[in-house]
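Ticket reopened. Same input as before:
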Amino acid sequence: MTASSETLTLAKEARRGARALAASSLSERNQILSRYAQLLEENADRIFAANAEDMAAESDENLLKRLKFDQSKLQDVLSGLKALIAMADPLSRVDLRTKLDTGLVLERVSCAIGVLAVIFEARPDALPQIAALSIKSGNAALLKGGKEASRTNQVLFDLLKESLGTFADCFHLLSGREAVEALLKARGDVDLIIPRGSGSLVSYIQSNTQIPVLGHAEGVCHIFIDAGADAAKSLDVVLDAKVSYPAACNAVETLLVHEDFEHGHLQSIFERLLAEKVELRVCPELMNRFAGTELSGKLVKAQPSDFGTEFSARILACKQVCSLDEAIDHINKYGSGHTDAILTGNDDHWRRFFSLVDSAGVYRNCSTRFADGFRYGFGAEVGISTGRLPPRGPVGLDGLLTYKYRLSGDGHTTAVYGHSKKFLHENLLSDRFEREWQL
Amino acid sequence: MTASSETLTLAKEARRGARALAASSLSERNQILSRYAQLLEENADRIFAANAEDMAAESDENLLKRLKFDQSKLQDVLSGLKALIAMADPLSRVDLRTKLDTGLVLERVSCAIGVLAVIFEARPDALPQIAALSIKSGNAALLKGGKEASRTNQVLFDLLKESLGTFADCFHLLSGREAVEALLKARGDVDLIIPRGSGSLVSYIQSNTQIPVLGHAEGVCHIFIDAGADAAKSLDVVLDAKVSYPAACNAVETLLVHEDFEHGHLQSIFERLLAEKVELRVCPELMNRFAGTELSGKLVKAQPSDFGTEFSARILACKQVCSLDEAIDHINKYGSGHTDAILTGNDDHWRRFFSLVDSAGVYRNCSTRFADGFRYGFGAEVGISTGRLPPRGPVGLDGLLTYKYRLSGDGHTTAVYGHSKKFLHENLLSDRFEREWQL
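Engineering reply: fixed in the latest deploy. New output:
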């Protein structure tokens, strides 16, 4: 258990260390990652032994699955590290360079945020993953592990410390509720909190801190099947979105169906979902539509609260709508701003859907389950954010960056600018990113 | 006075209106801005008359200066509107386009945030400025004006309403403390709060809401004069940073001087500052250095609390340091993350300063007063943010934008990807921004 006062001391230590890490070269940061990969590989048995102890102390079967750290999880971690090492330097990217006046040049350059606080639940593989992302992006981090994984986490963290060399001050492992409470109040010492766990954890953290939080409490994803949607593709997409991993935040929770979508096609989709053991909670209109048919006894009457609920299970709320706009309004009212899809052949319809649905991800004719940093090509994922402000949606390495403005002059003062002397404001950037000092 | 319940009703109305404004064309938004400019010009006398009533009811001289809305202020507002109309569309910019697989294309596209809440103090010219920025960026806004400017604000707002046409629901004028309290609690209805006023207003708002806040409570800017800094340029820069507008947030509040900076040059700087009626609050080392000289009686002994204080007045805290790193540490400890400058001829020194100082703006050999959206070439400024996360520093139109991901497929599902089927992740973007639908 880490006491409040110790947590704050470690946060301040991380803050001091963070400045050196943020100013380190790409090769220094990559060397840490290489050393860490090597140490993890060399100490695999030690990690597995600690994990066996954690597993032996646990009885909850769902938890055991997430707690497990075996050869396959280790390989995933190692290939993640390898991929990160291969990535270009996210720091020192110049994305704005403006000549304000002769000899006066403004640049905006990417830099590390500073000190992250990452709060994990059971999965121990999250520790090396998030530590590696922090290192690559030049950020220090306070890592608060779940108590179920404490022995595994301790070994993974000891190896991290060993690979950090002179940057050892940048990372600390915390434990216990008191540490979390201290982190939530550590405004000024902690710049960003990343909760990696259940919706209730994220929700608690968001409601109890004024530090920015990266994460989302809920994923209530929708699919709207438009009147003329392709039947076979709609079936494939809905099935994938519901049953390929029902506990995922990007799984579909509510199906909206246009009243003119062909009855037989809808019946096939419902039959297939039922065959996959998905409970269908349907609105009164759909209940009526299937009244007296074979399906009727297999459908459950939806309660109002089913719309907007993240079931994280083989349950799907279903509602018939009269129009595209009714679907859009429903999604904006009941959705969580995560990812929502339209299945349609009508170009005007998906464009209207894309414009008017407020979510971080708006999709057409594909599964909501594509909402994922790896699938988006970001290499790794810090988390998914359903807030309105950036970073939004699946967040990769870029979500751990900020920028600063650098202004370089030769004795320039402001008072001379006015009606006689004007700023030039000449854009000096041609490429998207440049990396060299050109001030 | 706007009651809590009414504030929430108006926020929800703005939310509904916001979607249409976000989906509107550039020409629709520019037409609103043109109509507003025309109405402001045609109704100048009505505005000035309302302003005269506000002025007559006020006695505080400082407030009167900010409250004044005359022909010159109107011209500034009109040229701001003209400049905004001329700017390219900030919406629908695609800055990421990746082919995930054949027929499956991901795009990231800029979009409006939604509903802003802008809380003003006395200056009525802030209302048309921020309303215009909101319109151009497709955002709805709840505008809470200061009571001193209520008559002027009402006229400015009535003209805005008139120019909005079918988008009238997007903007509402609120008043009174109860409205502010309701806004702070309107998470879900309000996406971003922008306080335009004193540090204490911003600070209060930041501490009492979980909605993101754009703004900064303090501007404690530093200038560090390095050992070999140019004497004449240092004098110019320090003077400009302190006396050109002492109440500005980007004015310098603390001067750090390397112990090896030539005594005679420092003496000249001090003499000039004293001649400009700047009170110099100096550390014991500097007090000793000038003991027995003509200056000695004119220097004030600094209190520890002077370092880190935003004086917003003709007062400058001065401290001698032994090294570059002592200066950097002092700034990171006492600064507010706004803007800090080094005056030096040494390339290694400013690079180290740029790397290690945590502030939104790091400058060399120029005045801290350049930290301003207009001076940076952003056209207009929403505010300056001293937080770590983007948007940071002076924030222009871009600070009122977010993005969404659009994914377009042809019945694509996720379960098929794995060891056999791989993602392509092919970057389809050559230019920085493209605007056409190319899905």
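Chain A touches chain B through 75 residues (CB under 8 Å). Chain A has two domains: 4-90+111-207, 221-377. Please confirm and we'll close it.
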